[in-house]
Amino acid sequence: MSLPFEWHVGWRYTRAGRGGRRNGFISFISAISVLGIALGVAALIIVLSVMNGFQKEVRDRMLSIIPHIEITQADGAALTDWHALAAAARQADARVQGVAPFIAVQALVARGESMRGAVIRGIDPDAEASVTPLGARLRETTFSTLKPGEWNVVLGYELARQLGVLPGDKLTIIAPGGQVTPAGVVPRLKQFTLSGTFESGHYEYDSTLALIHLDDAQRLFRVDGPTGVQLKLSDQQAAREVAATLVNRLPPGLMVRDWTRVNRNWYDAVQIEKRLMGIILTLIVAVAAFNLVSTLVMTVTDKRADIAILRTLGASPRSIMGIFMVQGAVAGVIGTLAGVSLGLLVAFNIDAIVPAIEQLLGTTFLPGSVYLISRMPSQPLASDIVPIAVVSLVLAFLATIYPSWRASRVNPAEALRYE
Q1: What count of other Cβ atoms lies within 10 Å of the Cβ of residue 140?
Q2: Whether residue 285 is found in the same domain as residue 246
């Protein structure tokens, strides 16, 4: 009861609409405007949540096999003391939780007439378990077969399939550079035994990565030690920040790359797609919000006599403007809250909704034989939902300005002439 009379009248106009055919039509248009805002907001929340879900799925599969940060020499040479470097990294930032040495070289993997390019990564199986989930998962099984001097290799599942090899088969790794002899440059070859395969769920790594023991890699590629150090962080989203800190605090001549830089094309593409999708769907919300303009203009035309009476009773143009701004704002708030509720309801239950729709239509949206991710993931984030709600409310508020201003300009004498 303590609210200004503009709020009471505006709320009464929002609930009105049953007193005649014209009022009923205006109420119907108003309901359509609210429904449009709700559906636009819900669509924006659902789409961005699904995009977040796919991004998380791909990111988690990617980070199951690669570290959060890699530190290497800028010239690609071996590190003189990787233990000291690891200690310096831990001291530079407390978010560094795990460290592991590695050697990474591009080479050829051959089996008979089949030959594929691959990244040969020399690892310490025990240390690898502290930096990658895949290393921790396979430490006691597949990675335990990587022992120095036994010349075993673990291939990505897709790479092994392309070469047509099974565990126990022999294959040859051809190192770059070669060896100079009187007969010319002879490539360095070494026969390995396939001791197992891994499957990270990320095609790029499953088809291009081969893992051998760190000591075998040093002997094969003739380096004096690890060429880099892998780091695991307590917060993977802080990788860029931690990398910037390490660049400033570690000795010069080192190259520090976080996972967003290593996979920059994918990371940037996802960010651009998300922004563009947000802009496109925001336009849908804007169209629905600006439907309020026509609704309020019709309401102002219908309430000209009421406006004139209020003016003759002493209401100022500002009060009249406030009444219709309240009416439009209430419609915007109701539409936004309904849209957020509907969007969150669908986003949090999409794993049950999508299978039900697939069963109803007799189809599969993401067949496992075609897509690596065969389910519809969803991850609603407050960083998306709050801006969506704010933008929707702002657009609805802006849509009320012109009709409200027009109502404040009604001349009481003209409005009451034919009443």
Answers
A1: 10
A2: no
